[in-house]
Amino acid sequence: MHEISLCESVVQVIEDQALAQGFRHVRLVKLEIGRLAGVEIEAMRFGFDAVTRDTIADGASLEIIEAPGTAWCPHCQQRVEVLQRYDACPSCGHAPLELTAGDEMRIVELEVE
After folding, report:
1. Total of domains in the chain
2. What mean pLDDT, rounded, does the chain reach?
3. 29: domain range?
């Protein structure tokens, strides 16, 4: 389950920012996770609760925003939404598409004190 290592990385980023910006506790972590990132959302929630114990984010709420996957079709010159990494273009059927978004994970907001 790679979600545990992803949670550990999130905590590391938070702790680095706490040192740089001088906050002592995190109450909310808002993550944006792309639909094509290969992250199991429920495993991420479970891992976050386990990994944040006894850290600056202990007891913090986790909010996850799922971002859609998008790709560029070089054949019909359209930006399209895709549900899986290797989907064909829903407009013209062309494949492969050039993935443009949906495979990322980022911290979009922290509520701190």
Report:
1. 1
2. 96
3. 3-112
Q: What is residue 1's predicted lDDT score, i.e. its pLDDT?
A: 59
Amino acid at 11: V
pLDDT tier, 83 (very low <50, low <70, confident <90, very high otherwise): very high
**SS3 (DSSP) at 1:** coil
Q: Going by C-beta distance under 8 Å and a sequence separation of 6 or more, which residues neighbour residue 100?
A: 70, 71, 72, 79
For 1-113, where are the alpha helices, taking DSSP H only? 3-21, 41-51
pTM: 0.87
| pLDDT above 70 for 30 | yes
Query: 78 has which bridge partners?
Result: 73
Contact 92, 86 (CB under 8 A): no
Q: How far apart are the C-alpha atoms of 79 and 77, rounded to whole Å?
A: 7
CATH number at residue 55: 3.30.2320.80
Cis peptide, bond prior to residue 96, ω within 30 of zero: yes
Task: Kindly tell me if the per-residue pLDDT of 42 is higher than 90.
Answer: yes
